[in-house]
Amino acid sequence: MSSRIEIEITSQIDDQEYTWRALGAREPKGTIKKSLLPAKTKIGDDFRVEADFLIDGIEILRVLPKRDERKGQETIEILGSGNENYGVTTQLVKKKRSKKGSRSRKNQGKDTQKKGKAQPPKKEASRKSRQSRSPQRGKRLKAKRSHRNSVIDSLPELHKPLAREVLSRGIPNLRKTLNDMELPQGFDVEILQYAEKINMQLKTAEWHDRADAVLKNSKEIDLRDFRSVVAAGGQWARSDELSTIQSQLETSLRERVDIEHQQWLSEIKKAIEDGKSVRALNLSSHPPKPGTPLPESIMEPLVHLANDSLDSDTASYRWCVVVQAVAFSPIRLKVVPKGIPERISDELVDTIKKLSERIPNIAGLFTASLKETKD
User: Fold this and answer.
1) Same domain, yes or no, for 220 and 281?
2) Does 255 share its domain with 156?
3) How many domains does the chain have?
4) Domain assignment of residue 108, yes or no
């Protein structure tokens, strides 16, 4: 079964044959008889041909005519009859409005204005629950694309569209696109292999750009972005130059985390001294070093501050705020309230019910209230 391909004339063997290759690629390639080509054929011309793919090679059967390029849009001109005299004419007559009607319309306008006034929205009864997401520590990473662009610029002009396709859509989508195209056998395999090679170069260049951006702002960049770049370095930092950058990143990260850790401890101390229990508890739940325990010199005063914040004189609303902060702090199992509020609100009961597994000591004081809600 024959198929159609586009070829490019590469050289002339003799008076009877030319050599060709697929347009924009190295393979497939072969020979074509001079009798099948136009008279003024020269090296570099491209043609659409019909070919048979045989076991021992590709045989060109005939050269197809080139597609005509359409210039502009095809339109239809409407000439008409040429008669500009119209048989029917119309004219609208304005009606006079009565005074009574105008007054009624004015009154209607006033009524609609009164009805259209926006009423103040009702306050939400329930407050949003506390989010346990880690706070941002520094500026978010914004890397340049200098190394990535240099990789694309180093490619031949015919290969740059493929690189941009890999960047925008990825290898899996490129594979689907090639499967939908009618390509000669083996074409898609060669293209995919080359695309994967380009993809590795682009990914490495992107990591290089991110690493350079982190090194320039190692004291200000967000720790989450810092850690993500260092973690990705194990996959992309394979050359000697990139390995050196990776070691610099690891050293800078350790120094940055130590500085952030000392600042974190000092902020908790200051919050405890100022009597800001919720701030101190929230800070304690987000250490720069994940899993770092609080020192005893900070843990004991923080527990006392939390216990003092949960007593019978504290309102239910304040209880909800403190309980949520305690539930996500490292001292949640050590906090024992000094008392429970005299008036227990439904919001407080719901909050303790949701967090009962994290704060068993506090939930035990509200056993009766929790049973009533279940009943």
Assistant:
1) no
2) yes
3) 3
4) no
Query: Taking the model in full, what pTM does it have?
Result: 0.53
The domain of 343 spans 274-374
Contacts 24+ apart (CB under 8 A), 64-73: 64/4
Question: Do residue 310 and residue 252 come from a single domain?
Answer: no
Tokens of 207: 């990591």
Q: Give a yes or no: residue 333 inside a domain.
A: yes
The C-alpha atoms of residue 101 and residue 364 are separated, in whole angstroms, by 73
- CA dihedral angle for residue 51, residue 52, residue 57, residue 60, rounded to 10 degrees: -30
**Which CATH number belongs to the domain containing residue 26 in this structure?**
2.40.50.140
pLDDT tens track of the chain, all 375 residues?
578 888 888 888 888 888 888 887 777 788 888 888 888 888 888 888 888 877 667 888 888 887 765 555 656 666 655 555 555 566 666 666 655 555 555 555 555 554 454 454 444 444 444 444 455 556 888 888 999 999 999 999 988 888 998 888 888 888 888 888 877 878 888 888 999 999 999 999 999 999 999 999 888 888 888 889 999 998 888 899 999 999 999 999 999 999 999 999 999 999 999 999 999 999 999 998 888 889 999 999 999 999 999 998 999 899 999 999 999 999 999 999 988 888 888 899 899 889 989 999 888 888 766 555 555
Q: CA torsion, points 280, 283, 284, 285, in degrees to nearest 10? A: 130
Of the three residues 45, 64, 83, the one that is the final residue of a domain is 64
